[in-house]
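Input:
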Amino acid sequence: MIKVSVMYPYAAGARFDHAYYREKHMPMVKQRLGAACLYYTVDKGIANGVWGSASLYVAKCDFICTSVEAYEAALGPHVQEIRADIAHYTDIKPVLQTSEMVVERSEV
Amino acid sequence: MIKVSVMYPYAAGARFDHAYYREKHMPMVKQRLGAACLYYTVDKGIANGVWGSASLYVAKCDFICTSVEAYEAALGPHVQEIRADIAHYTDIKPVLQTSEMVVERSEV
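Output:
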């Protein structure tokens, strides 16, 4: 399985509507992805984190998917709609990371 | 719950021993964290990802933990050991992101 991470770089004073992102945008994208996406996760950056570390990303999500091709095929027809929806919660341009999920969840 | 993400920025030609990271380093850190960490995940960056996107991180992990304080308290005594172990698999200096886990795993 693969993990598609969409990450919004932190910028001081930048707008980010976490509630809209979590309650409206993410479920909408999940619906468009359909069976290509098994589930997603959503994170909110903590400004003063472990050992005082700065927040690199104000928010981010992971889409756990069957393959890169399935993700692209499912989302392709909806890219315009999804990009238009981003403006509802932020002006920050996200960055993308595609990964192979090596350990989905460790045991014990 | 919080998510502590440790991410290794991609650098062309840089050494990264994914097997050591997955089989030796991560279980060792998990053992040191003890009850402060519920589980972890491990990802391996895909060089040519979704829509041809570059790999920002050659590898990364998430530690899902009870709190920032619990993570710091558990790992504090072992920081030297953990940093020394990093050299076994890479020379890349990781970056840290601390997040509040807003959606651990979406349903349906």
